[in-house]
Amino acid sequence: MNELTTIIAQTTGYKNSRQMAANYVMEHPELMNTFMRICFEIDNEDHYKACWALELVAYEKLEWLQPYVPLICSKSKLLTNESAIRPVAKVLFLLLEAHYKTGNSSIQFTDVQRQEMIALHFDWLITDCKVAAKVYAMRCLYLLGLEYQWIHPELQTILIKDFSTHSAGYKAVSKHILKKLK
C-alpha cells in the first residue's frame, strides 16, 4: 500500500480527517491520476473516503478537475455507496455552477458529458437516493436546463409530484427551484 492509499484508508468522516486527506492530494498533484482512479474504483472498500476528500479538493482546486471531467461524468453513474454519491453530486454541482454561473472558461463539458449528467441527475432525483444527492441533482438539472429547455418542465413536474413525500430539506430546495422555474 502506498502513502496515498494508506491516508485514504485512515480517513474518517470528521472534517479534519477529510481535510488532511485533501491537503495531502493538493500537496502532491502528481497523485491526482491515482486519487481520481480510487474515487471511482467501486470495488475498493475505501473509494467513498476518497470521494470525501475529492469534494474538499474541488472547493480549493476546482480547475484541477477539468482533465477528469470525462472520468467523473462517465463513472459517477456506477456509484452505489451513498457516502460516495453525496460528495460526487456536490463536485458535479460545483463544476456545473462554475461553468454556467461564473462563466469559468476553464471548466468545459462536451455535449456527451452534459447528456451523461442529465441522465445521472434525473436518475438520482427519481430513485431512492438520500436527500443530499437529490438536492444537488435538482440544482444541477436547473443549471443544465438553462441550456436544454426541455429539462425545466420535466424537473418542475417531478418536483411538484414528489414534493409532499420528502423531507423538509428536500421541500425547501424544491420550493426554491420551483420559484426559479416560474
TrEMBL record:
What species is given as this protein's source?
Answer: Flavobacterium faecale
Q: What name does this protein carry? A: Adenylosuccinate lyase
